[in-house]
Amino acid sequence: MNYDELVKKYKALGIETPTKEMIKTPEQIEGIKRAGIINTKVLDYVEANIHAGMSTEEIDVLVAKKTKELGGICAPLNYEGFPKSVCTSVNDAVCHGIPDPHTILKNGDIINVDCTTIYQGYYADASRMFMIGEVDPVAKRLVEVSKECLDLAVKNLKPFSRLRDIGYIIEKHAKENGFSVVHEIGGHGVGVEFHEDPFIYHYGKKNTGMVLFPGMVFTIEPMINEGSRQVFLDASNNWTIYTDDGGWSSQFEYTVLITETGVQILAH
Ligand code: MF3
Ligand code: CO
Ligand code: CO
Question: Cα dihedral sign for 259, 196, 220, 153?
Answer without folding.
Answer: negative
